Protein: Transcriptional regulator
Organism: Actinocatenispora sera
Amino acid sequence: MVESVPESPSSRLLALFAGQRLTPTQRRIAQSLVEHAPRAGYLSASEVAELAGVSQPSVTRFAIALGHDGYPALRQRIRELIGLDTTGTAETTDEARRNEWQRAVAAERDNLASLSDFLADPKPVLAAAATLSASRPLPVLGLRAARPIAEYFGYFAAKVQPDVRVLSGGGSQLVDQLEQATDAGAEALLTFVLPRYPAEALAAIRVARDAGLTVVTVTDSPMSPAADESDLVLPAPVGSQLVFDVHGAPMVLAMVLLQAICDAQPARTQGRLEQFEASAARRGLFVP
């Protein structure tokens, strides 16, 4: 019997917001609460507004849109969901002693726990892997902050999948590359779209879908603007405790997805890996 994995605070908040028809501003508020899930039950309306970069009345309207009388009622619901007491004193002494860097690492630990919760149901990743493994060539899109993850994925994917094409530049050339991949027989596009959500990435997804490609997107949340544009969405939260975002969970998800692609075509994977190892040994690529 498979032992159930306790849901993380961020997963519980995602479940609270899932399926709601939210405006772009309300999505930013929801995403900010998810990103700060461990302490979301302690935040005031003004603190939430500051985190999301919106006005305080927008936070009140957000709470009402979710069916609550106001933000205090929503905060009470959040506390109930993530198991906090109602006194606001549940923050531990250890948490209080942590410095800024430690809190950022702890937040990333929570993000990985949220990703683990998502992976408890393997069907979304397996469906994405089946779609991507059948595409030849396989274009992989990652612009701006998502570029390193796309290139990391592409580097290893090229060892097991024929003709992987990493698309990391924007402009008209990006559309050329998508059209060339489609003409060469591509059936799917893998995209990595992370905050602050490049407009060119969303435009490229629309071009790909218009061309008949199935779009699989790794993004930070089901509420990401890229989610609405994609056929299959794999969410992995992004850390926002430091000056620049932390992409630990999206990177892990990229490698999990690649593992699933390998498992979808085991004979091809084994054959190509053996070819690479033989070539590497012949050329002396690595230190013995």
In short: The radius of gyration is 21 Å. The longest helix spans residues 100-119.
